[in-house]
Amino acid sequence: MTAPLLQVRGLCKAYGALIVTDAVDLDVAHGEIHALIGPNGAGKTTFIALVAGEVAPDRGRILLGGADVTRHAVHRRAQAGLARSFQVTSVLPAFSAVENVALAVQAAARRSFRLLPAPGSDRVRRAHAVELLAQVGLAAKADVPAGVLSHGEKRALELAMALAGKPRLLLLDEPMAGAGPEEGRAMVELISAARAQCGILLVEHDMEAVFKLADRVSVLVAGRLLASGPPDAVRADPAVQAAYLGEAAT
Amino acid sequence: MTRFAQTLGLPLVLFLLLAAAPLWADTFTLSLLARAMIFALAAISLDLILGGAGLVSFGHAALMGIGAYGVGILMAEGVSEALIAFPVAMAAAGLFALATGALSLKTRGVYFIMITLAFGQMAFFVAQSLSAYGGDDGLSLAARSLVAGERWLRGPLAFHYTVLGLLAAGALLCGALLAAPFGRVLRAAKDNERRVRALGLDPYPYRLVAYGIAGALAGLSGALFANLTEFVSPAFLSWHRSGELIVMVVAGGMAAAALKAGGLGRPGSALLGALLVVLLEEALSDLTEHWRIVFGPLLVLLVLAGGKRARGGRT
């Protein structure tokens, strides 16, 4: 019996009188895709920000691989194996695609505090970065500045950057948002393939993708977990249908 | 080829021109060029944090001034040896940068500009109150520093090549820092700090080290400046001069970007900017005492011409 990769216990966050996260418990196991769904304003993105460390919780605990990271800064959680994509894509626009990934590779290798260039190891990291780009289908765009990539390509680039660190836990905030049907299908395949390497917490509005990918689904409504379980059970839950799925699923 | 032109072409041309200058230049021109090169060293060090890391420091002249006072005070106390005074000047400016940077770098944007300005002004008023070392009037050096006991820096040629050599070393160092994994973090944090944190990198220590190195190089530039003028005064630390250094960095970045030969965050461009500003100032002030009336619009044109390209990236 090993502890789940991510354990969230009694997590609370309020902005003034507005409670955005209300005593949430949630687990993600290794090799599992746990989808978090809910209507707009349910607090999904805040929850991701709490887990990533950008927002400090009022109460509750977050354990990563059994270690308490509740008070750790963003970069320390990332060093502990937490990688993410953002709801609004977040790449380095002035860097080429391959430089974006190369930064992620050097960060993962803990080789960043090197004051002078080392052409040899830089070449190795660049080759690794090109490999990662190829995995997400961006090999042809390696030298294009990330700022001019299409939306779907930026999504894929973010995923390549996230995977560069061989993360234990991947937080994906609406990876399908704004993607065309073709890009969406490619993204589903990429996420499905990433499952072999890590646990994934997936926030997504695209229900088709959620039910195709998720091993477990949790429904967040007004900051509170309404239901949690296998996709079919959650879909059949009358409370969930009333609160959310009713309109969306038909 | 374009990549070569962007990284090495411009500095190579400028350094060759500077190295060949003694073939045609008279003593006055050489001393003008030495002044330009000394400011170029300070501008290159400022560009490391301004162009490279995106941190607009408004207190860079203080670092240069601390270096100058380091040489001046040591000489007044009987230590004329450059091999002692220059490292002391660099260490003093570097430590001042580390101490003030440790606080300043907790802030961003306008707050960073204001806090670096405040520290710069503090240093300025401290220099003014040094009554044992001239106070408001400044301090005249007895002579230029000795190098290993020799009066080597007295000759205009030797001084020219000493400054040129140290400038080249500073430019190489800053270029290497920016190209290294270290510099990649600096540039990335300027581009998108949130993403850099999410990758597991805290930009703070990188920025602090860059700030310290920039401080030491500015201190070296100040030590050379004290030797050029054989005089140090509180005016060296004034915020006007910090502004001039920013103008050099930005004008150089814009001009180089307009020529497709660089941009902000490239030592060669800061070198170009310092040469442009110092030489233009000299040429225009020969024509009219209202030279800024010409200089201002030129600067605006440069920024307009280079601004668009300068925002583009490097590969």
Automatic annotation (TrEMBL), chain A:
Decide whether keyword Nucleotide-binding is in the record: yes
Any single GO molecular-function term of the entry would be: ATP hydrolysis activity
Q: Which SMART domains match?
A: AAA
Report the GO terms under cellular component. Answer: plasma membrane
InterPro entries for the chain: AAA+_ATPase, ABC_AA/LPS_Transport, ABC_transporter-like_ATP-bd, ABC_transporter-like_CS, BCA_ABC_TP_C, P-loop_NTPase
**Keywords assigned:** ATP-binding, Nucleotide-binding, Transport
Q: Which Pfam families match?
A: ABC_tran, BCA_ABC_TP_C
Q: Which residues form the ABC transporter domain?
A: 6-247
List the CDD domains hit by this protein, alphabetically.
ABC_Mj1267_LivG_branched
Q: What family, per the record? A: Belongs to the ABC transporter superfamily.
Name it: Amino acid/amide ABC transporter ATP-binding protein 1 (HAAT family)
Q: Which organism is it from?
A: Aquabacter spiritensis
TrEMBL record, chain B:
User: Which superkingdom does the taxonomy of this entry point to?
Assistant: Bacteria
List the CDD domains hit by this protein, alphabetically: TM_PBP1_LivM_like (cd06581)
**UniProt membrane topology term:** Multi-pass membrane protein
Under Gene Ontology molecular function, one entry of this record is:
branched-chain amino acid transmembrane transporter activity
Q: Which GO terms describe its cellular component?
A: plasma membrane
One Pfam family of this chain:
BPD_transp_2
What transmembrane ranges does the database entry give? 35-51, 58-76, 82-103, 110-130, 158-183, 204-225, 290-307
Q: Which UniProt keywords apply?
A: Cell membrane, Membrane, Transmembrane, Transmembrane helix
> Where is this protein chiefly located?
membrane
Q: Where in the cell is it found?
A: Cell membrane
Key word Transmembrane present: yes
What name does UniProt use for this protein? Amino acid/amide ABC transporter membrane protein 2 (HAAT family)
Task: Look up and give the organism this protein is from.
Answer: Aquabacter spiritensis
